[in-house]
Amino acid sequence: MEKLREKLATLRAEIDAANERAETSEQALKQLEDQQTDRDQELISYQNRIRRLEDEAQMREDQLDEAKQFQRDNEATLNESDVLVKKVVTLEERFDDTESKLREALEKIRAYDLENEGLQRTITQHEKDKEIAEQKYEEMKEKYLASKGELDETIKMLESIPQQKITAILQATKAHARGLAFFVTGYKSLMLLQRYLSATGKNTDVHTFIAGFVSGYFVFGEKTSVNQQIILYLFSRIAMGLVNTAMKTTKFKAPPNSFALFAALCWGMVMVLFRRDKSVLQDSLRSSMTYLYEDSNHWSSLKTLLWHNK
User: Is 75 helix (H, G, I), strand (E, B) or coil?
Assistant: First the structure.
């Protein structure tokens, strides 16, 4: 339950972070849109200014043409010619200045166009980030709801378990952990003692067997349900280990269906033992088989047939 609560807290934190990122993206998008509006207005202002400059340049060109025509018509008069020359020079300087301003305006327009394209890409990226954040938010919300449902089901299941069963499970777990701790402590202590007493200063297989034998006798010697389960588990693993050792030693290859034959042999033998004398079987196995193969022969409703009988 603590892990589930931690998981829910983590999911809530991720959802809050996603919401904050979505809000930040929206604010950044709004700021970029405002900047884009300002840029557009400034661009329109420059375009109007360019049109005015172009009109003025055209007017200056017309004036220059008139001045040149006037100069050609009055070449006889030197003073007037000098005046016209000065006017022409002035008009040419103004024209050059206007042309320079026009080039600067065009360069600024191109720079604003490039900046506008960058802002458009940034806005598009922020919109994509916003969509991704919203998708992540929905996914985290679904995970949160699923985890919350699992937690509620787990709480209901734990509440439905009788207190006696919970106590028995905890006691069995404690006995199992304590037995393993005592066994490890005893085994390692005996191994260290035998290595210290050994002439070679090394442990052998005999030392290993003695340490396991003595520790197993004193730690798991009492016949309890927990010890019985542990010993039966070890016995089955030892049997499989001996079989694998024999196969490696003799280089014998098991047939492809060896496990199926082994499973069939185990079930056949246990069913014969249950039929002939069920008292020789282990208590929990005997209880389960009795419920499955004998109690199921008598039922009064679908509940007693499918869920629980006797």
Answer: coil
